[in-house]
Amino acid sequence: MNILVLHGPNLNLLGEREPEVYGRTTLPQLNTLLKNYAKKKKAALKIFQSNHEGGLIDLIHEHRKWARGMVFNPGAYTHYSYALRDAVAGSMIPTIEVHLSDIHKREEFRRTSVIAPVCLAQITGKGVNSYLEAVDRLLQG
Ligand code: DQA
After folding, report:
1. What is the position in ligand 1's atom list of the atom closest to the CA of 125?
2. Reduced to 3 states, what is the DSSP secondary structure of residue 94?
3. Which residues pair with 48 in a beta bridge?
4. Which atom of ligand 1 is nearest to the CA of 99?
5. Is residue 61 annotated as part of the catalytic site, yes or no?
6. Which of the following is catalytic: 7, 22, 63, 131?
7. Where are the domains of the chain?
8. Domain 2-140, what architecture?
């Protein structure tokens, strides 16, 4: 199964950015974890990070025929990007929205996701395990 993993804005700074909220695992470490996990489960992963809304939209479009599932952490775009929501819906890629922190236990503005309604599920607050659970969920079909 081909799975696209997309990390949104500021996630390139994982490990050094607010570690008390997002943990100390860096993005390269998280990506290695994901690749090893996927290998065990015989899934093919492509992983990208972008700080730009349009860049994320382009990646979704480019992989819409390749990907059979997507694990998407849209970062702060989660809370207001209708353009990304439309890209997810339009791509027809079954998508799991993931967050490292628990967005429902933080500031009010983070409690809303405009993207979750077009996703299969939202997994939030489990640190890097949010991503691993999302891979499992996609593999379960
Ligand atoms: C985040 C939560 C968002 O609210 C925040 O803007 C992020 C990271 C998370 O993984 O917990 O950049 O998506």
Report:
1. 11
2. coil
3. 6
4. 10
5. no
6. 22
7. 2-140
8. 3-Layer(aba) Sandwich (3.40)
